[in-house]
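Q: I have 387 residues here and want to know how they pack in 3D. Can you give me a structure?
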Amino acid sequence: MPDRREQLLEATAHLEAPLAVLDDVALDANAADLVARADGVPVRVASKSLRVRAVLEDVLARPGFRGVMSFSLAESVWLADQGHDDVLLAYPSTSAQGFADLVAAEHRRAAITVMVDSVEHLDLVDRVLGADHPSIRVCLDVDASLRMGPLHLGARRSPVHTAEEAEALARAVAARPGFDLVGVMFYDAQIAGVPDSSPAVRLMKRGSAAELVRRRAAVVEAVSRHAELQVVNAGGTGSLHVTGRDPVLTELAAGSGLFAPTLFDGYAAFDPRPAAYLALPVSRRAADDVVTLFSGGFIASGPTGASRAPTPVWPEGLSLTRNEGAGEVQTPVQGEAARHLRIGDRVLLRPAKAGEPMERVDRMARVAADGAVTVVPTYRGEGCCFG
């Protein structure tokens, strides 16, 4: 049987490259895995990890998924206008235009919940809209990092860490006209976003998970004294099977596991199937065993290093060159397989992170099990750039 990656290239050969390619067979398997690991807890889909509306809507139509976790207020408004009625904005916004657009239509206010982690966020909204603005749905972002003395393990997000801090903010929101507190969110980056690279890492994850179960319960109890919570959100692709056991949660969140980029290759508890690729054309031959690809410099965010670069995966046996890596306009790749590539042939690369490369291409070719191809626009292809 031909390698599925070879089939992806053959099926999309008639399309212009560079091109994003999605293996729908792998997407189906990954979606099923996320639902299975969530074990009955609904999964909110993180749009930043897809940035392709057709794929987002496909996944949301499947049992086990519910609602969008957006990354921009402008994106949230756009999604609400497209018919999405449950959008949780995962990050605080400072967009005056975004808040003006939010309160301009009832369907947007009903669909979108914005994130805050301080009274300053409320002050900003009142400053840009005026204190008599329509009610805005609000969720508290609670820091889920593990703190051990001076060590801070996890993402640098909210200043709200303890139940007492969460209750103080909840009390302030509840007392503020124009805001309706409906949720709390905890993102456990030190569990969800860290591969199982050593026994020490696995021990840290177990300890952090146990600490969060205790602290989440205390936070939810404290906040619930001031609000009727509709949303208690936590988790990520790498932690669904752990975080979802917490009975205080109403939902989990995931997105990257659908596309399965290379940063998710090192987890012990699950094995996602690579689904999203970039197909780049060979534009010239630099040496017998080196060819140059057009484009390719889709370096993922985060700490700089080799792990953030895309990885050539088909034909097998190719690698980036040490001196150039993945370039803005050209990307040399080397290896025995390069000797057999011609000008115009294509190479498949896997990105390090899921959604970010979709900002660099305007189309995604979805390839079904039978080789049928459906071309859908990315956010960029729909004329949207949300940051």
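Q: Anything worth noting?
A: Residues 199-223 form the longest helix (25 residues). The chain has a mean pLDDT of 93.
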